[in-house]
Amino acid sequence: MTELIASLNDFLWSYILIAALIGSGLWFTWRTHFVQFRMVGEMIRLLADSSIPPGKGKRHISSFQAFAISVATRVGTGNLAGVATAIFIGGPGAVFWMWIIALIGSATAFVESTLGQLFKRHYNEWFIGGPAYYIQRGLHCRWMSVLFAILLTITFGLSYNSIQSNTICSAMQQAFGWSPLWVGIVLSAVGLVIVFGGIRRIAQVSSILVPIMAIGYFILAAVIVVMNMEQIPHVMKVIVLNAFGIEQAAGGGIGATMMIGIKRGLFSNEAGEGSAPNVAATASVSHPVKQGLIQALGVFTDTLLVCSCTAFIILISGLYQTPELNGIALTQSALESEVGSLGPVFIAVAILLFAFSSIIGNYYYGEANIRFLTQNKTVVTVYRIFSAGVLVMFGALATLELVWSLGDLCMALLTACNLIAIVSLGRYVFRLLDDYRRQKRQGIKDPVFHRHQLPEIEADLDCWE
Length: 465
Fold this sequence. Notes:
Elements: H1 2-31, H2 35-38, H3 40-49, H4 63-74, H5 77-90, H6 93-118, E1 121-123, E2 126-128, H7 131-139, H8 142-176, H9 180-195, H10 198-227, H11 232-243, H12 254-269, H13 276-280, H14 288-317, H15 327-339, H16 342-373, H17 377-397, H18 400-441
Antiparallel strand pairs: 1-2
Helix pairs in contact: 1-6, 1-18, 3-14, 4-10, 4-14, 4-16, 5-12, 5-14, 5-15, 6-11, 6-12, 6-14, 6-18, 7-8, 7-18, 8-9, 8-15, 8-16, 8-17, 8-18, 9-16, 9-17, 10-14, 10-16, 14-15, 15-16, 16-17
C-alpha cells in the first residue's frame, strides 16, 4: 500500500506539480510587480497595526489572529521533521529548493489569500471563506468547489493531523521514552476540548502558542549559528553545490533533490495549496489586499526563518549522512550534538507546541469546508471527533512512511485543484492590488474596498458593502 501511494506521488510531483507551482508562482510574481519583495515593509506594518477592528463586533477575529492560525498550521512538523526528511532523502540541496519555492510561492500565497478575503461570506457572527467559496462564486463551478472542499477536509482535518500526531509521539518517545499510545490519548483529549470551543478559542490558543514557539526556537537556532559561525560559509556552499547536483551527498541527482525540496517546502509553507485562504477569509479588514500581504509574510516566516533554523542546526552537526537518523530523530540528534542532552528534550517540547497548534489549525480548515458542504450539526460533530480524536490516535500508532505518503498524495491533489482556480481568478487580485497601491499613493493610510469597484462580480460578493 505504501509503495503504491509513493509511486503515485512520484508521478504527480515529477511531471505535473513542480512545473505548475513554479510556473504559476513566477506568473503571479510578474503580474503583481514582485509584490512579495517590494511590499515587505507594508506587510510588517499591517501585521504590527492589526488588532480587533472597532465597530465590527467582538466576535470577529483580528488580522493578526488570522495570521497566527495560518502560521500555526504552517509552523509544525514540516519545519522540524519535514526539513530533516528533505535533507535525509534529497541532500543539503533540498534546502535551497525549499527557499526558492518560498520566495516564488509567497506571491501565490498573496493571490490565494486575497481571493479568500474577496469572496468571503457572513456566517452567523463570523466570516467564512476559502477556495471552495471562491471557486463556486468566482468560477461558478459547483462540482469543482465540492471536490476541493472534500480534498481539503481529508488532507488537513484528517491526513495532516495524523502526521502531526505521529511526529509528536516520536519526539516524546525519543526524549522521554513515553508510549505513543498514551501520548496519543492525551493529545486527542486536549484537542477535542479546544476544537469544540470553535474558531474563537482556536484563534486565542494560536495567538499565544505561535509567538512563543517561533521566537524561542529562533533564539536557540541563532545561538547555535553564532557558536558555529566559522562553519556557515561551508554550510552555504554545500547547500548550493548540492542543489544543482554538484558534490551530491544523497538523493540520486538534481531531479530528486528538487522534488523533495519542493514537496517538503510546500508541506511547510502551504503556498498554493489552498489552506491559508480559509483562515485569511475570517479576518475583518477594510481591503482584501491587506490580508493577502499578511499571509504572504507568513510564508517568509515559515520557510526562510523557521525551516532555515532547522536546516542550519542539522547541517552544522554533520549528522544528516547517518543512515539510521531520519525525521524528528535527526533533528533531535543534531541539536543534542550542539547543546547536549537537553537538545532532544527541547525539540520534544517545541514539536509538541508546533504540531499541536497545527492540529487545531488544521481542524479549522476542515470545519470551514465541512460547513461549505453541509450545515448539518451532526456531521460537524462527527468530523470534530474524527479530526481531533480518531485520526490523532491513528497517527500516534501508524508508521512514519505511511502517514507522510498519504499526506503527500492528498497535498498533490489539493494543490492541483487550487492552482487551476487561482490562475483563473488572479485577474481580480491584480486589479485589487492596483487599487490598493493607488490609494496608498494618494496618501490614504487605510485603503478601503467596495464591491461596486468590481461590477462584473458585484453580485457574488457578500461582505464589501
